[in-house]
Amino acid sequence: MDKTLKRMATMHRMQVTGLELFYQNGYYNTSIDDILKALGLSKGAFYYHFDSKEDFFISIVQNLVVQKFYSHMIEPIEGQEDPLNNILNTFENSLATAEHNSLDHGFMLSNFITEFNGKNPVIMKYLKDIYQIWEVNLVSLLQKGKSDGYVARHVDSEGVASYLTASYIGIRTLMVEGNSRTLRYQYIQQLRQYFKMLAQKEMA
Amino acid sequence: MDKTLKRMATMHRMQVTGLELFYQNGYYNTSIDDILKALGLSKGAFYYHFDSKEDFFISIVQNLVVQKFYSHMIEPIEGQEDPLNNILNTFENSLATAEHNSLDHGFMLSNFITEFNGKNPVIMKYLKDIYQIWEVNLVSLLQKGKSDGYVARHVDSEGVASYLTASYIGIRTLMVEGNSRTLRYQYIQQLRQYFKMLAQKEMA
DNA sequence: TTTATTTCCGACCAAGTGGTCGGTCGACCC
DNA sequence: GGGTCGACCGACCACTTGGTCGGAAATAAA
Question: Which one, of A106, A163, A183, A135, lies nearest residue B110 by Cα?
Fold first, then answer.
């Protein structure tokens, strides 16, 4: 068991550092040597634990990326009260975190989707799955919001969910090129207006 | 002048093919040899016309990308009637074009912004400028819409513009991973609702 | 036809790339 | 102590990268 522990510990260290660099510089722009140098490890160590660079990245997605996504974007939106409020708060918190992180490099998921699109269908599948978990969660939350009277019944939950994820991805992309404070404020403000509409029983 | 013409013609051919491949595979993932092979030209020809790969890319942005952006995203939204309607139609047309293009690789501008962020500030500047032209145009259009009575006076033009560009960037990013038809429909539908709100004289 | 100049060729280079492989070293078992 | 085995080392390989350079066609000027 000790051996297994050591093995796991090393693999985990590699994955953490790997994700950091992949997120920072992109997958194709980060060499295995870069990661190994940051870790003080050698080629031998890497290929002892992982089959290939791709295998390594997939293991990172399955372990770290999924986990991060759940804890930052999925779990915080769940709750018994007004789902629109929960979504708004979760989005605002995420944007605030990004804003105050000078090392922010955009929305991890959409960055990778953009990079792998048309190049690696296998990895794309994993990323797509994460996105869909996000959307499904939003939809069911909005549906529940309808039963609970927080969301107007005429609202198209799927449409709103797509619209929400799209706008969030977009604003995160824009925030990387500076001016993030204003962008966050404007975005939340507009989202608030939009949600006010979704909550209304009747449209004019 | 003939020489200049030939020179320009070759350079233009290189730029067109270059943009095609850069858009398809990304800048760092497209080698000069790839482009040259597609053109049937040699290394010598390339470095005779351009100083470096970066110089080449910048020339592409300044010539082709800016031009494309103007003709597809800026000029179509201008008009005397309802600006909200113009924006909606322009966005819908762009999304429809992307949807019916099986070779679509996402929104060019945001793809490049994502790729160059934190890696090449010089190129980032050029991309950022294009984005800002977009936003400025949207803002002034919305302002005019206010004077003309199409847009409610309480609306924050800057905020709406940011929100619009963000949502468009996001939906284009999502459309690359399939299901583009549904996404476009949902997006336009939600945008319509949102615009209805912006046009209203008073909020409930 | 010679001469000059623009345009293009392709061999070459140093610096990387992902991946392989024989070997070392220490912890544990007998 | 000897042997086994998991964990790691680092030289090495074939290949690709952006970029250089001497020279050769093509074209225009004389």
Answer: A106
